[in-house]
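Residues determine shape. Take a concrete instance:
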Amino acid sequence: MNLRWGHRAGAGLAATAGATALVMLVAGPAAASPLFCGAGRGLTAQNAVQGAFEDAQNSAQSEGLYGACTLAGEPQIFETFNDPYFGHLFRAQVTVTCLP
């Protein structure tokens, strides 16, 4: 039995196993809690944020996540004074994470 190539094969297998473990460690949390973005508009800031939250929930449900959703960060609110159709208008963007 020739064991001359055993050391090189063991090092290659160890490197492959280490790289695989690193990928699983990094990708595991990202796969467990995806982020979904939503956008909305309304005559008040609250209506715009609520519309954006519902839009993000709908995006999560399209991926099969029907559980509770929570905000991941602060909503971004933009105020417009010269919208051609509504005049004074609020736009909002939120990012949420949802449970399965």
